[in-house]
Amino acid sequence: MTGTMVFDPIVPIWLLAALALLCGLAVSFALWRGLNGWGWRGLAGLVVLGALAGPVWQTENLAPLSDIVLMLVDQSASQRLSDRAAQTDAAAQALQSRLETRSNTEVRRIPIRDTNGDGGTEMMAALSEALAQEPQGRIAGIVALSDGQVHDMPLAPELPAPFHLLLSGQSEDWDRRLIVRNAPAFAILGEPFTLTLRIEDSGSAPQNIDRVPLDISVDGGESERFMVPIDRDIELPVTLPHGGRNVIQFTVPVTDGELTDRNNAALVQINGVRDRLRVLLVSGEPHPGGRTWRNLLKSDASVDLVHFTILRPPEKQDGVPVSELSLIAFPTRELFLEKVEDFDLIIFDRYQRRGILPSLYLENVAQYVRNGGAVLVAAGPDYASADSIYRSPLSEVLPASPTARVVEEAFRAEISELGQRHPVTTGLPMEGDWGRWLRQVEVTPDEGDVLMTGSDNRPLLVLNRVGEGRVALLASDHAWLWARGFEGGGPQLELLRRLAHWMMGEPELEEETLWAEPTGQNLRIIRRSLSEEVGEVTVTTPSGDIETLSMSEVSPGQFETHFEGAEIGLYRLSQDDNETVVGLGPAAPREFEQTIASAEVLAPLLEATRGGVLRLEDGVPSVRNVREGRPAAGRNWIGLTPREAYETLDVARAPLLPAWLVLLLASGFILTGWLREGRS
Known about the structure:
single chain, alpha/beta, Immunoglobulin-like, 5 domains, 8-stranded mixed sheet, 5-stranded parallel sheet, 12 helices
């Protein structure tokens, strides 16, 4: 119980001040005139002014409140290394028991667990939330049991009490880690780029070690070992072997005594892309579709196009001297003998044999296909003639032979049953909306896949693999009608793009392929196949465990399943003859970037609150009371600041000048003053 005098004025302060001034002037005037009752009248005025000021005697019934100590217990991944978890749990239990034996003290134990994703240890966010739930005036101290590796220091709040860090781990701990300093998401095929790696030792690492082994593997293949320097940046030139996802794994063998091997490996996933698609377009003669092909190819900034149209065949003899012609001579030898391998795709548009390309050159093109090249033939009536390109060495690689018949009637191109499952034609806009074509060359498929059909279900688009290369035959020269918007047009640009990418072997357009899309620790496994059923997919985890999963068809030719991986690392997927690898988790988990216990990160908080750092391996420190602003830690002890907070249960008020007393005193002083003046 405590009591204090407070004032609760009856009138505004300015009015009370004006009345006090008026009373003072009246008393001063009486004193100046020499009136004998001025003192008594002044006392009467003071009584009235005091009553108007409202003096009250206030008593409060107070109840003391306990001090609160926040204890942050780090349970993140790095705290599960070695014996840190057991060490921290035992220390937390002992410290909590020690604090609870203190009078007037409460303990709030706050676990700090791993965050979702790769956010690391977000201790400051948890501390801010805990402080928001407690009165600041009751916080006597904050104690963190951790390895000190906190990843959200920019969110650190202002602390109302000393902050202490009890470090887990051992002073002789050491660790070796692999760092990938730069890894692009994309890289151009055939062009080298530089990866920067670094291998670092931290803590009480062994001395006199200059070089360590580094194992490198690509797409889960056999690894190669190199001896590399330690504690120095290593610049590694890399050229991607194929398009699509390339998974490169770097591993440093584990050494005895290391704190963990979780940071001895890194996975880098880089998508290989082509810089530019080099296309050779050979038009056998001018026709309406020739410019359409050219415009389509030139509209793609990623295409380098070389286009030749044969305007003056050898049989054309009109007597014009060659020196007066403005035409460019067809560099056949240079293109088809010396530089044919420089092209990614060769398109023959209504080309027929006229003696311009000798059989040797066409044989060279056929060999170019077998070695991994790509040829697209857009056929017109020329393909059905006696001078057809099919009647040349190219027939060995072309997928369909002409019957010498040309169908001159309108038809709508349709996707075949197989084409509904093939990535080149699946998902194209509805063929019912496509405009009609007016001519088709009748062909007989020798081998390959018929993806589109035309008049009377005749083959229209045929694809085939030859050796390492690929060939496509479009048995009509009226695809340009789609580009011109005839009867609504059609998806010529998209079809050509898919054809070109399939012929380049782009992974997303392979008809028989297996791949996976990682999201966090989840895998979406996708299988594309021309078959109506596929078998189970086998998943091999980084630790060697094997799990088989069945797949369901989600769209024509595409099967999917999902897998949740508990480990971070390289997963191998296999199904029939298809295999792939994918990495789950970050290349270097944030919790294992720095594993040696240290107070460096939390140093600003410790200095600002004059807290201390003690190692748990030296035992649980004792607890003392310290005054605010004084050093709060010493040898094997930490300090708490008693807050002496209290709670007001009730408040009672009693006026010091009740009305009857004011009336009695004021009238008595006034009467006494009047009598004093009367005697005078």
